[in-house]
Write a structure and sequence with these properties.
The chain has about 270 residues and is mainly alpha-helical. The protein has 11 helices and 4 strands.
């Protein structure tokens, strides 16, 4: 019988055999997620599909994880039903008599007006005529706009739809993964932010957006020491990464500037 193949752990550098490193538990290859059974990349700390931490043997019950942890995945089916109901509702609205009041700018985008926010139900923007990529980006932009406005009710309503839209994309760019992670960050789902950061950094270890997400995920988990480590990596990578002039860096220039300012303010160097 041939001896087991020995390899080097991509996380701690220890010689290891089998599917997991005996020293740190990092997957070594041919390993699947215990929750959704997606194939895990060597060295991954989180499943890139569902966000489950590597090494967790079985998904915890929804009641133990809490509403925030269950939110992006438990309501996926409900989100799809909501979109179907939205389209049906819009068709019904178009069939009503013309004496309805003129729509406000918010209502034209599928959201209740500020004046009637307390009386009107929360509705999603009409994305039925958009491509999957456009749907995902439209929902992300709406979630982030509402977050900046402090409208937490609409953020919590639209965030699961946005997550589901990105999960349906057959191939996700680094920018797509950053968007997914940011949705996790603004809704308090640390595993979603950390999983997307981990996948980005597996592909590009000095990517600024991945480092920003990783620091945010660590702080959400209460691990300030790890977060400061990502802050230091962010500042060290900044000069070379800025020279690359990536489109996603230009699109998220404000996020990068805020993260750099925060890292410097916390004394990372």
């Amino acid at each position: 019988m041939a001896p087991p193949k020995t390899t080097t752990c991509p996380a701690c550098g220890t010689a290891a055999t089998g599917r997991f490193c005996a020293e740190c538990g990092t997957p070594l290859g041919d390993t699947t997620c215990a929750s959704c059974h997606a194939a895990l990349s060597p060295g991954a700390k989180f499943c890139h599909r569902c966000g489950t931490p590597v090494g967790e043997r079985a998904p915890r019950p929804v009641g133990e994880r809490g509403l925030a942890g269950a939110m992006p995945w438990a309501v996926a089916a409900i989100s799809l039903l909501a979109l179907v109901a939205l389209v049906a509702g819009q068709r019904f609205a178009r069939s009503r008599p013309a004496e309805q009041p003129a729509a406000t700018a918010d209502a034209a985008q599928g959201m209740p007006s500020a004046a009637g926010a307390d009386q009107s139900p929360v509705r999603a923007p009409d994305i039925s005529n958009l491509t999957p990529e456009e749907q995902a980006e439209r929902l992300f932009n709406r979630v982030m706009t509402l977050f900046e406005q402090g409208d937490t009710a609409r953020v919590q309503f639209l965030a699961p739809m946005a997550v589901e839209a990105y999960q349906r994309l057959p191939k996700k760019s680094i920018d797509d993964r950053y968007h997914l992670g940011r949705i996790g960050a603004v809704t308090g789902v640390a595993t979603l932010a950390s999983a997307q950061a981990d996948t980005i950094l597996q592909q590009q270890p000095t990517n600024l957006l991945g480092l920003i997400l990783a620091a945010q995920g660590a702080r959400m988990r209460g691990d300030e020491g790890v977060a400061r480590g990502y802050d230091r990596r962010l500042l060290a990578a900044l000069p070379a990464e800025q020279k690359r002039g990536l489109a996603e860096y230009q699109q998220h220039a404000n996020d990068i500037a805020r993260a750099v300012e925060g890292a410097r303010g916390r004394g990372a160097s």
